[in-house]
Specification:
By secondary structure, the chain is mainly alpha-helical. Helices cover 75% and strands 0% of the residues.
Length: 305
Amino acid sequence: MTRFLAGRIFAGLLVIFVVATLTFFIMHNVPGGPFDREKVFPPEIKANIEAKYHLDKPVYKQYQYYMADLLRGDLGPSFKYRNRRVRDILADTLPVSAQLGVLALIIAVMTGVSAGIVSAVFRDSVFDRLSIFGASLGIALPSFVLGAFLIWTFSYQLKFMPPALWESWRHMILPAITLGMAPASYLARLTRSSMLEVMDKDYVRTARAKGLSGAKVILKHVLRNSMGPVVTVVGPLVAMLITGSFIVEKIFSVPGMGRFFITAVTNRDYPLIMGVTLVYTTLIVFMNFVVDIVYTFLDPRVKLD
């Protein structure tokens, strides 16, 4: 266990370091700068601003400054929001994105896995065909189209839900459904296909031949042994949903991390782009680690060492 933990921590830190390095140099090689869109400054004022943020130094020097600050836990100041630091922006926006992501994850897992289980158990039934059609539609339908449709239907026609903002539980429903629909559709198809594969195994037929009820066969033999691929997908899915969907947050005016990331890309706000990227990368690494732990409970043949 100790060797496994040490290896995964080292591998995770290495992934974060590589992502940070690649993101830094890619951003600084893109044409344009963070202050090119500002009003025209006198040359001496622009030089002072660039010197303040070390933009007058060679790229490798800027990289050294950034990594030194990162090791101290400092993500740097925002170029766009002059009096705010990146860690303060993330501290304000990440909880909102996480709240939206958790709600979308609950919708995705409960709806997708349940539909996949019922669809596999009642294979080739009317519900199975409707489930496959609905899952295909949910995957193919872009989130901005679904979000616009939900706003038009429930906000402007039925006047039942608020169209935007993030002020009460009623404001959370439409963004959570919009964000969770595509993952739910994908999980439904993955759960169905995984369960159908397990249901054709010899040990499942043996369990049925011994006289076990259909419910016991499904719950004890089929469901547990078919959840491996689903858990593998849910790990990165959690990180994606918690960090928030940039499009969904923009449509519903949710004050989450996604809106700031879009603004940061538009304005070449290098520290803010780096901060959001590192948060996402860290969540991915952590959730993959959690998936490895969960695997040992689903399949005793999997050993951490």
